[in-house]
Write a structure and sequence with these properties.
- It comes from Rubrivirga litoralis.
- This is DUF2256 domain-containing protein.
- Residues 41-65 are annotated as: Disordered.
- Pfam families: DUF2256.
- With 65 residues, the protein is mostly loops.
- It has a domain at 10-43.
- It has one helix and two strands.
- It has a two-stranded antiparallel sheet with strand order 1-2.
- The protein is elongated.
- The chain starts with 9 loop residues before the first strand and ends in a 20-residue tail after the last helix.
- Bound molecules: zinc ion.
- Residues 13, 15-16, 18, 35-37, 40 line the site of zinc ion (ZN).
């Protein structure tokens, strides 16, 4: 059996929850890598969300309806 599959270490993204495999660019930083991409990394870092989700309650209908 000469089937040798290169097994890369994998992790689970802390943002999107998807598994991602080791990448060369993370070779030096793999231990601290927590996100599958810079996008997720940013999504996690940017706290742009505010409130608890209660924003647009029932909108008033058009005037004069
Ligand atoms: Zn992700």
């Amino acid at each position: 059996m000469a089937h040798h599959k290169p097994t890369l270490p994998t992790k689970t993204c802390a943002v999107c929850g998807r598994p991602f495999a080791w990448r060369r660019k993370w070779a030096r930083d793999w231990e601290s890598v927590r996100y599958c991409s810079e996008r997720c990394r940013r999504a996690k870092g940017s706290a742009g969300r505010r409130g608890d989700g209660r924003g647009g309650a029932a909108q008033p209908g058009p005037p004069g309806a």
